[in-house]
Specification:
Order of helices and strands: HHHEHHHEHEEEHHEHEHHHHH
Subunit structure: Heterodimer of an alpha and a beta chain.
Protein name: Pyruvate dehydrogenase E1 component subunit alpha
Structural class: alpha/beta
Radius of gyration: 22 Å
Bound molecules: thiamine diphosphate
Distance between the termini: 88 Å
Catalytic activity: N(6)-[(R)-lipoyl]-L-lysyl-[protein] + pyruvate + H(+) = N(6)-[(R)-S(8)-acetyldihydrolipoyl]-L-lysyl-[protein] + CO2
CATH class of the largest domain: Alpha Beta
Keywords: Coiled coil, Oxidoreductase, Pyruvate, Thiamine pyrophosphate
Strand content: 5-15%
Pfam family, one: E1_dh
Shape: globular
Number of strands: 7
């Protein structure tokens, strides 16, 4: 066979030769067995139990939130079941000084990063107290504009770098988000400045009703990072160990001046896109649902922990009961929040100096509300 010329352009091979390198990284298989010892992050028994606890707790939060939304007791809600490993194992790899810039589906991560649950409920209701993030809780509120958080994350990461802070920024978008201009601008900017950012793409297979296959001609979403010159990895997003391992590695690299990483987490959203009325049965089959349910992050992590003697039914039931109690108490607190006024929104908008035009509006509303 003739040797390929170094400067030849072979349209049949490009972009295949890059795409074929993106195999999905997995550590824990569907049976809960370690199949990739080299990458095992070596979490302690306590860490493993805590991560499982958080995933079970979040599954219950999801069920309760759907039900509360149907009762008219919650506002906006984007279901999370199926994405627990992708969401919580990545957050678990962070430290509290790291900053999270979530999308609208990423409420569990910001709760475990310190946002009180009642505030998450109030945010869902559009109540100003939900947006009043406590000092020291390093999060932005969930972004609704698809992809916008990628640009913001690049900016926050650059700020951290300039101030010499020893912490990183993580942001999340979906498969659909990778078609937005903001996505490319964000990863390119962070790459160009070598900023400490972790960009997560939660590929849950659908952007509302648009399947991943129609989203892009690219074989993987992870490969998009290569054009920006940043290390990129495709990982099994239903494998908590794999998600934790790659996020931790990305964090350490960023802290050591290695710059950003892009992580595609292959996962599935079991529920509808949001509670606003889409019907998943119109764009996917129950066979597809069942295929993905077999890969469930809770099932495989439960098997893994049970085999290690770290988990059992009794433990799980305790977590479920505690979750229900905490959710009940948080909704009660949210119900007790004061009726909001326009001035409340204006007052929480700025941590620093309020601009003159906002001050003027605040005066107008304060006057109106006093009557
Ligand atoms: C800039 C912008 N365009 C359109 C929308 C409407 N919209 C809301 S969610 C969504 C799909 C996003 O899908 P994906 O990025 O895959 O995230 P997922 O919801 O699956 O987590 C769209 C198009 C929006 N919010 N922002």
């Amino acid at each position: 066979m003739a040797a390929k010329k170094a400067n030849a352009f072979d349209p049949e091979q490009s972009p295949r030769e890059i795409e074929d390198k993106f195999e999905m990284l997995q550590i824990l298989n569907e049976e809960g067995e370690i199949i990739n010892k080299e990458m095992d992050p070596g979490m302690s028994d306590e860490q493993l139990t805590e991560l499982m606890t958080r995933m079970v707790w979040t599954r219950i939060l999801d069920q309760r939130s759907i039900s509360l939304n149907r009762q008219g007791r919650l506002g906006f809600y984007a279901p999370t079941a199926g994405q627990e490993a992708s969401q919580l194992a990545s957050q678990f790899a962070l430290e509290s000084e790291d900053f999270i810039l979530p999308g609208y589906r990423d409420v569990p991560q910001i709760i475990f990063h310190g946002l009180p649950l009642e505030q998450a409920f109030l945010w869902s209701r559009g109540h100003f107290q939900g947006s009043d993030v406590p000092d020291g809780v390093n999060i932005f509120l969930p972004q609704i504009i698809i992809g916008a958080q990628y640009i913001q994350a690049a900016g926050v990461a650059l700020g951290k770098q300039k101030r010499g802070e020893k912490s990183v920024v993580i942001t999340y978008t979906g498969d659909g988000g990778t078609s937005q201009g903001d996505f490319y601008e964000g990863i390119n900017f962070a790459g160009a400045f070598n900023s400490p950012a972790i960009f997560v793409i939660q590929n849950n297979q659908y952007a509302i009703s648009t399947p991943r296959s129609l989203q892009t001609k690219a074989k993987t979403l992870a490969q998009k990072g290569i054009a920006a010159g940043i290390p990129s990895v495709l990982v099994d997003g239903m494998d908590p160990l794999a998600v934790y391992a790659v996020t931790k590695q990305a964090r350490e690299r960023a802290l050591n001046g290695g710059g950003p990483t892009l992580i595609e987490t292959m996962c599935y959203r079991y529920g509808p896109h949001t509670m606003a009325g889409d019907d998943p049965t119109r764009y996917r089959t129950s066979e597809t649902d069942s295929e993905w349910e077999k890969r469930d992050p809770l099932i495989r992590f439960r098997k893994y922990l049970e085999a290690k003697g770290l988990w059992n039914e009794e433990k799980e039931n305790e977590v479920i009961e505690r979750a229900k109690e905490e959710i009940k108490a948080a909704i009660k607190k949210a119900d007790a929040a004061p009726k909001q006024k326009v001035s409340d929104f204006l007052n929480i908008m700025y941590r620093g100096e309020m601009p003159q035009n906002v001050k003027e509006q605040l005066d107008i509303y304060t006057e109106k509300e006093s009557k």
